[in-house]
Amino acid sequence: MKVEVGQTLVSVVDSTAVVVVRAPAAEVALTCGGSGMVVGKPGAATGPADTGAGTVLGKRYVDGDTDLEVLCIKAGGAALALDGRALAIKTAKPLPSSD
Q1: Do residues 62 and 43 lie in contact, with contact meaning Cβ atoms separated by under 8 Å?
Q2: C-alpha–C-alpha distance, residues 96 and 21, integer Å
Q3: Which residues 6+ apart lie within 8 Å of 95 measured at CB?
Q4: Rounded CA separation 5/54 (Å)
Q5: In the chain, how long is the greatest CA-to-CA distance?
Q6: Does residue 37 contact residue 70 with C-beta atoms inside 8 Å?
Q7: pTM score
Q8: What's the CA gap between 23 and 8, in Å, rounded?
């Protein structure tokens, strides 16, 4: 699937919804709980949820191999993955010392 900046993607297995902040140039497979995410508005989803770590509202998730960055706008119980690799929560950059 070709993801674009500003696109809202929702999970088909749980309530997870994300907004694309940065998108890679190539087509990618963004999944949640092992099933592909679809373009749409956040809403109720049906189906079994994965037993992964889940998503946290307000956190940014990134992939180390591509430029993909998504912002979680609705939390869920299934984990996000890109082309089979789990997405990591983006950490804050340390501020310089004020010595």
Answers
A1: no
A2: 25
A3: none
A4: 23
A5: 54
A6: no
A7: 0.83
A8: 12
User: Has residue 37 got a pLDDT over 90?
Assistant: yes
Q: How many residues does the chain have?
A: 99
Which positions ≥6 away from 58 have C-beta within 8 Å? 71, 72
Q: How far apart are CA 76 and CA 57, in angstroms?
A: 8
Domain extent listing, the chain: 8-89
76 forms beta bridges with: 55
Q: Which residues contact 16 (CB under 8 A, 6 or more apart)?
A: 10, 32, 33, 37, 54, 55, 72, 74, 75, 76, 77, 78, 80
The 10s digit of each residue's pLDDT in 41-69 is 876 554 444 445 799 999 999 998 898 99
Q: Within the chain, how many helices (H) and strands (E) appear?
A: 0, 10
Residue type, 16: T
